[in-house]
Amino acid sequence: MSLVFARLSHCVSECDTIARMGGDEFAILLAESQGSDEAGQVAALILSTLAQPFFIESQELFISGSIGIAFFPHDSANLDELFTYADTAMYSAKHKGRNNFQCYDHELTLHVTERLSLGAALRYACANHELQLYYQPKVQLKDGRVVGVEALLRWWHPVLGMLTPDRFISIAEETGLIVEIGEWVLKTACQAAVDFNRDVAASFKVAVNLSCRQFLQNDLAATIEAILKTTGCRGEWLECEITESLMIEDNPQVANTLEALRALGITIAIDDFGTGYSALNYLSRFPIDVLKIDRLFINHIDTDPCKVGLVKVFIALGTNLEMQIVAEGVETVSESASLQKLGCGLAQGYLFGKPQPFDVLMTTLSL
């Protein structure tokens, strides 16, 4: 921290003030700032300075910073409010990928207020039975047969109505509620899998999305094994979907958990493939069974040669690694035909069915 303080000192003038607020946070008062342009220049200089390596006990270390800026008296003439607004802008910078600066505006306060309100209500969502799983069919392209579903979480907020995960999952992850909610999702999905698989010849899989926090905050494999036993669900009926970001961390705990899930007979799928990281070596290092190609590459594949080329590579890559290939977000017959021609085996999307509650979907399936 003393080295960081020294570098900050070189970025400001003698009449400016630097204070450590605790932990790894600092506050800087620019006494003679002429406005947002000058403050932005200072912030950019700080980020550039912090990006240079630190040498501690012969070790080369790198750090980055996230900076929030609030202006007196434009944003507020009250000191406490200015600190709060700068802090709000700083967290906005963190949410935008870190290593950047953001200036406060009123919309940020509205955004933060909404997130706090949702976070408070989310704590009671499980107990109040406000969560519900919807299921979207996954089909074989060659004959249109439904071979599984993906479980998608919905929150029936008492005031706002039905909310999709993009409105609240990041809040659940920040607050740690994702572990409790994730366990509820797994239990509910496994119970549904038991019902889906009554009197069927082939295994009907239910896919569930897992977050990074679930992998790192508890013994996920043991939790899922207990849920399988409690619900009577067989491992082969469950598919766990993870993202590329989880793989890129190269955390031994992640690899061990995936191996343990595989030992239970559970299928492992990479979700939204192609939108994350380019380090593809994880595909051979981790026990992955299914490659789900993101909808970004599927939409208009029937008219876009570039997307055809990329998807062709994805399919060849997955096939050579003995993985099943699933195309996400298929919306037209023409897209479906293009995918089938490229050798894609499975697909899901509005063409085959929108996400529906369990009871509604069961009335339309012929298993």
UniProtKB/TrEMBL annotation:
Classification via Gene3D superfamilies: 3.30.70.270, EAL domain
Positions of the GGDEF domain: 1-106
Descriptive protein name: Diguanylate cyclase/phosphodiesterase
Matching SUPFAM superfamilies: EAL domain-like, Nucleotide cyclase
Organism of provenance: Syntrophotalea carbinolica (strain DSM 2380 / NBRC 103641 / GraBd1) (Pelobacter carbinolicus)
Stretches assigned to the EAL domain: 115-367
Source organism, top-level taxon: Bacteria
Short name of any one Pfam family annotated for the protein: GGDEF
Family matches, as InterPro entries: Biofilm_reg_signaling, EAL_dom, EAL_sf, GGDEF_dom, Nucleotide_cyclase, Rev_trsase/Diguanyl_cyclase
